Amino acid sequence: MKPSAFFLCAFLSVGSAGLPGIHQVFAQSRLTKPENKNKALAQKLDQVMGASFNKDGLGGVLLVAEQGTVVYEKAIGKANIELNTPLSTSNVFRIGSITKQFTAVAVLQLMEKGLLQPDDDITKFIPDYPVHGTHISVANLLSHTSGIKNCTEIEGLSPDIRRRKNSVTDLIGLFKDQPMEFAPGTAYQYSNSNYVLLGYIIEKLSGESYEQYIRKHIFVPLGMTHSYYDTPEKIIPGRVTGYMQLRGDTVVNADYLDPSYAYAAGALVMTVEDLFKWHTGLYRYSILKKETLAKAFTPFTLSNGQKTKYGFGWALDSLGGSAAIQHSGSINGFSAYELYLPTEDVFAVCFSNRMNINTGGPAILAASIATGTSNTREIELTKEQMTRYTGTYKFKLDQPSTTKIFIRDGHLFMQDSRAPSAWQMHFTKPAEFYMYEVFPNNHVFSFDGSGKVTGFVIHAPGYTSTITKVE
User: Fold this and answer.
1) Which of 354, 375, 396 is the endpoint of a domain?
2) 231 and 349: one domain?
3) CA nearest 357: which of 98, 22, 65, 8?
4) Is the dihedral of CA 267, 273, 278, 279 positive or negative?
5) Which helix (H) or strand (E) holds 346?
6) Angle value at C-alpha 84, between 78 and 88, nearest 5 degrees
7) How far apart are CA 448 and CA 3, in angstroms?
8) For residues 29 and 5, what is the distance between their CA atoms, to the nearest angstrom?
9) Do 328 and 199 reside in the same domain of the chain?
10) Full residue range of the structural domain in which residue 251 is found
11) For residues 274 and 225, is the Cβ–Cβ distance under 8 A?
12) Is pLDDT at 289 greater than 70 in this prediction?
């Protein structure tokens, strides 16, 4: 069952003001779980998975690693609803825009070989691309600061474009004549078009297809044996079916999308274990030098001196005061999210075969639990204080769904009208609470001039949202 709508703001926002240096090389890691793994951690993460996914329906896979070793790995839900096949941690998922970091690293590999530089104008590699008298650099593409229109947001495109085979030149033709959104380097705006162009540059400089390049220079060296460039004809062992959930509990097969439409911006598929292999391989500097990888985790500086919240292929933010390197992915039938806390050396990844479900929440909460940042000292409220907060709340006043806060067994609980169960509210201050079993957002009650409760504000990483009390 999908978590309540207002918990979706657990998504980590794209961006951060700067990160510390790259973390030290991992200790030798293993994909096997340590025999002495923390049972308390596993129990808490089991609660996270149980609150996030439906064991009898659409589910997900969560992997958490500390100090280069997997400490938790679990699947819940169905890989195929029609066949009643359970999900496994070895299943292969579409990862959507997490693909972009693979494309970015491929570009950085070509830079190490002296075939390009970040400041090179893209017309050096694509001479006929219309730059409209501006300088669009490779770095602008990598950091989403090019001003090029996002090809997935162009109005009036035929739906058939998403369903048919597209060459890279077909894709470029969709957006190359679109007006620029802004002058290159003056603003940040996420655009899949940037990574389509980067995929084309990789092919031109390497003499290999994007698929061949990624397999030869990344998958094979890192032993990623369950990772592929997605094609519908290919038999991929362990590949799961992708779904969408409509209002209520109605589940439907995801709309068909030919992976060629996603290309270098989102066409890769893999297991969570292979994404962990990728992660550890990067920090062992197996496929990039340390100083080159650091470029990917450096916020781009705009022409006005302001730093964006994106490097090359990764979004840069913070979680509980710690630097965070992260990215999400959403594509027909699938959602994905990965998070790395370099200071604590904690990595979390969550995949789901359901489109538009919050895979960020479980990964963020898992990282918070693993680092201990979610274990803030809890206080007890008086009955009078608890009664003050009981009532009905709404995320959006024009929507029928409601959220109830009520007292049960001497504690306050919250339940959304669309959720199967309630969640306990853990108070750290008289008007401030968390729900550790769900997502690590900080919730703060608000009051009017007379002291009456008017609602509460959700403070998620990089995001706030106001919930209104209606009765």
Assistant:
1) 375
2) yes
3) 8
4) positive
5) strand 346-352
6) 40
7) 29
8) 37
9) yes
10) 12-375
11) yes
12) yes
Entry pTM: 0.78
- The secondary structure of 152-195 as a DSSP string is GG-TT--THHHHS---HHHHHHHHTTSPPSS-TTS-----HHHH
Instruction: Tell me if residue 45 falls in helix, strand or coil.
Output: helix
The β-bridge partners of 447 are: 453
Q: Which pLDDT does position 308 carry in this prediction?
A: 94
Looking at the structure, do residues 174 and 301 belong to the same domain, yes or no?
yes
Q: Which two tokens stand for residue 347?
A: 């990595």
Q: Are the C-beta atoms of residues 208 and 217 closer than 8 Å to each other?
A: no
Q: What is the pLDDT of residues 326-355, one digit of tens each?
A: 999 999 999 999 999 999 999 999 999 998
CB atoms within 10 A of CB 163: 13
User: What is the CATH classification number for the domain harbouring 434?
Assistant: 2.40.128.50
Place of tokens 């075969």: 353
> Residue 221 to residues 43, 106, 214, 218, 286: CA-CA distances in angstroms?
35, 13, 10, 6, 8
Residue 462: predicted pLDDT: 47
Q: Are residues 371 and 399 in the same domain?
A: no
- In the prediction, which pLDDT does 285 show? 96
**308 class by beta-carbon count within 10 Å (0-12 exposed, 13-18 middle, 19+ buried):** buried
Residues facing residue 453 across a β-bridge: 447
Whether the pLDDT of residue 97 is over 50: the answer is: yes
Average pLDDT (268-277) is: 98
Q: Which two tokens stand for residue 22?
A: 């790259």
From first CA to last CA, the distance across the chain in angstroms is 26
85: helix, coil or strand?
strand
